[in-house]
Specification:
Length: about 160
């Protein structure tokens, strides 16, 4: 049984906070390992599930292919996207990073975050569900309480 504390997403700060993760983070694409680390970071922001960032050296080599497009976060800066490719399978734009984040998030420069749904992930022993909606990449786990932003009617919170 995982001993992660209960957390309420409504208690997370705004502006968001970056903190080290005390649990292993695992990402898989089907049966294929994508990443595993005990050196991850997470970003906590009010009404968001935590977004986890894994160091590039803990990603399986050769699985990331640069994808087109970018996005901009007012807190972290410009994000670059990647496809995850394992054999004949491809998860389009399933990962992103901030190559040159703002000073407050400098620790995650080049670290990768992953959308779950096509990919599977775990925080410690807790399986991850995707944050609602089709934009945010937070990881929802059973230890979270509160209303997680992303679903219908929450876009302007």
């Amino acid at each position: 049984m995982d001993s992660q504390p209960r957390e309420n997403v409504q208690d997370y700060p705004r502006p968001p906070r970056l903190e080290r993760v005390g649990f292993s983070l695992t990402v898989r694409f089907g049966a294929d390992p994508v990443a595993e680390t005990k050196r991850g970071w997470r970003v906590l922001e009010t009404h968001h599930a935590p977004t986890y960032y894994l160091p590039p050296e803990d990603i399986e080599p050769g699985l990331l292919r640069p994808a087109s497009g970018s996005s901009f976060c007012e807190w972290k800066g410009r994000a670059a996207y990647f496809d995850v490719v394992t054999g004949a399978d491809t998860a389009l734009r399933a990962a992103w990073c901030y190559p040159e984040p703002t000073a407050a998030f400098d620790e995650i420069a080049g670290h990768l975050a992953f959308y779950v749904g096509t990919l599977s992930a775990w925080v410690g022993e807790l399986p991850v569900r995707p944050q609602p909606g089709d934009f945010y990449g937070g990881w929802v786990t059973d230890n979270l309480d509160g209303i997680v932003k992303g679903g219908a009617g929450t876009a302007h919170w």
